[in-house]
């Protein structure tokens, strides 16, 4: 009796013709599709590789992105980066930028009493408070006292 | 035309290696998706330089001081060593305060007073403890080591 093998060695044998198996391939593709659908989110992370965000367990999901201004404080250099402007050192330069951004948001109707304009500070874990306070003070002088800090969710703390 | 096997002299589509690679890719994306960190926010109100509320005159503010080495003090009472990441004692103290008031507006204001050299991650840990205790009135104090320009 002829023993039939099913491995690659069987390929090419006249009595063991491997046909194109569509069903398993479709199964795999469907699994992949389901996987990417499950992991895809509507909100694109704005994380940067050069800023290591601190972890916290009780933060809130970011909402109302049209009523907030992202301000990055770069690690090592401590430069302030906002709205595509080249990073700068003097925090006082931030005040007119924040004020203008707030006015634009108010004109577009994104700001309300229930949802005030706020600044979203994305700072590295090792950034010193002196620098962060400079940024907060500049924001306050622009009339934006509400500030929030970017964190990475620490799911272990919520357990 | 794609075929699962090779006809004589022809290079056909090899299904088995393709499936192997697909499963490896699937496993890779599953692992990397699990390692993704979600960005969130911790909010705080900064005392504005413009017209502000004249409240809190009857309330005794709670001052949380954070030294440069990360030691946390709750009204001068040590509540977190530098290596204490979770700050459970501080959470308990803040929760006792917030739990005493049914109306969040009646809470004592909490003022965070970090040193100029305090690391941001330590400040976030304190904010996290405040968020856990549902502190509604939170503000920052200028660093005592010298005011910024």
Keyword list:
heterodimer, A: about 160 residues, alpha/beta, 2 domains, 6-stranded mixed β-sheet, about 20% strand, disordered N terminus, B: about 150 residues, Nucleotidyltransferase, domain 5, 5-stranded mixed β-sheet, 3 helices
What does this protein structure show overall?
- The complex is a heterodimer of chains A (159) and B (149).
- With 159 residues, chain A is of the alpha/beta class.
- Chain A folds into two domains: 8-39, no CATH class; 55-157, no CATH class.
- Chain A has helices spanning 22-39, 94-107, 129-141; strands at residues 55-56, 68-73, 80-82, 85-88, 118-123, 146-153.
- In chain A, strands 1-6-5-2-3-4 form a six-stranded mixed sheet, with helices on one face.
- In chain A, strand 2 and strand 3 (80-82) form a beta hairpin.
- In chain A, helix 2 (94-107) crosses helix 3 (129-141).
- Chain A is elongated.
- Chain A starts with 21 loop residues before the first helix and ends in a 6-residue tail after the last strand.
- Residues 1-5 and 7-12 of chain A have low confidence and may be disordered.
- Chain B has 149 residues and is of the alpha/beta class.
- Chain B has a domain at 62-140: Nucleotidyltransferase, domain 5 (2-Layer Sandwich), CATH 3.30.420.
- Helix content of chain B is 30%, strand content 18%.
- Chain B has helices at residues 15-34, 88-99, 120-132, and strands at residues 39-45, 62-66, 72-74, 77-80, 110-114, 138-140.
- In chain B, strands 4-3-2-5-6 form a five-stranded mixed sheet, with helices on one face.
- In chain B, strand 3 (72-74) and strand 4 (77-80) form a beta hairpin.
- In chain B, helix 2 crosses helix 3.
- The radius of gyration of chain B is 27 Å and the shape is elongated.
- Mean pLDDT of chain B is 77; it is low at 1-6 and 47-54.
- Classes of the chains: A alpha/beta (159), B alpha/beta (149).
